[in-house]
Q: What sequence folds into this?
């Protein structure tokens, strides 16, 4: 793999051939699906870096780290500036990180979505995520941070400086029996996740939907979740073909506890900017446990207060209705 005339045939082979701290340069071109799995010889904390050669545009099919739920995801790896192919118009292919993936950085990728499931110490830095017009058999999905199976609990994930856009219902969503529930990002059970400095636009139903759904998420709960310094636009309602409007008040939601004994602990929602007619959807579910959830310094529409959360120094528009949740909040008008 150390001469262009003897280049590796796959990213997985290049990852294994590279020594810790070395750079793998990928020649310009379009490549098939790529899967990178663990290399038992990678014991150093110095990353192997995979990136396009200077001036090269590199397109791959789907990019998958790991192959199953048994923990064979790679470690000590940085992947930069790769693009995934389009499976169809409005359907860009995904990036998936499976259990065992650890100490991995995805920097400046251009893909339909990412799925982080059973990972640890993963950073998504920048990048363009979308479009994905979902349907029953779509080759993309929402961006997901998911709890992971035992013993691979998702923890310590950073998403920073990324753009999420055009996660919408595709034509197949209007077929009988189709069940399309969508948002730009889905966060389902995790520890130490931070989503910051990112932009969300043209999302269906929600920009970020945070939930506890299924046994793994119930086992994990949410702990030390930070959503800060992001920009959210108003989501689409997707009522039917030709009738969708950008009018939902649910840019961000924390709900659906699914009988988890942990619920939400130590959550910070702070310094985010929302369009005038959207904000945080309050979940009236009395079974949801909220402990130390603070909403601080946001610009958003007022749609009521949750007495299990604390509020301070928020500025509320009257795009929905008029009100505030603490004495330090302010009302900005329409």
A:
């Amino acid at each position: 793999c150390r001469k262009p005339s003897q280049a590796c045939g796959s990213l997985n082979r290049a990852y294994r051939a590279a020594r810790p701290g070395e750079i793998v340069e990928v020649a310009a071109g379009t490549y098939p699906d790529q899967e990178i799995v663990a290399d038992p010889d990678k014991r150093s904390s110095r990353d192997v870096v995979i990136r396009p050669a200077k001036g090269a545009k590199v397109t791959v099919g789907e990019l998958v780290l790991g192959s199953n739920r048994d923990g064979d995801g790679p470690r000590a790896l940085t992947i930069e500036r790769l693009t995934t192919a389009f499976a169809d118009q409005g359907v860009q292919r995904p990036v998936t990180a499976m259990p065992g993936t650890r100490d991995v950085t995805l920097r400046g990728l251009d893909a339909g979505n990412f799925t982080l499931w059973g990972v640890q110490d993963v950073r998504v830095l920048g990048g363009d995520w979308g479009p994905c017009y979902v349907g029953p058999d779509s080759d993309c999905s929402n961006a997901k941070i998911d709890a992971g199976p035992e013993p691979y609990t998702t923890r310590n994930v950073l998403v920073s400086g990324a753009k999420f856009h055009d996660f919408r219902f595709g034509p197949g969503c209007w077929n009988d029996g189709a069940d399309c529930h969508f948002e730009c990002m889905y966060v389902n059970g995790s520890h130490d996740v931070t989503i910051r400095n990112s932009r969300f636009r043209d999302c269906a139903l929600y920009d970020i939907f945070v939930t506890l759904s299924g046994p793994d998420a119930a086992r994990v709960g949410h702990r030390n979740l930070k959503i800060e310094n992001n920009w959210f636009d108003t989501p689409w309602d997707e009522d039917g073909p030709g009738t969708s409007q950008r009018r939902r008040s649910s840019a961000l939601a924390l709900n659906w506890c699914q009988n988890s004994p942990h619920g939400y602990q130590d959550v910070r929602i702070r310094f985010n900017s929302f369009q005038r007619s959207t904000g945080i959807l309050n979940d009236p579910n009395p079974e949801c446990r909220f402990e130390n959830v603070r909403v601080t310094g946001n610009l958003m529409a007022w749609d009521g207060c949750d007495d299990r959360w604390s509020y301070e120094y928020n500025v509320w528009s009257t795009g929905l209705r008029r009100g505030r949740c603490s004495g330090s909040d302010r009302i900005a008008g329409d």
Notes: The first strand starts at residue 23 and ends at 26. The CA atoms of residues 92 and 176 lie 25 Å apart.
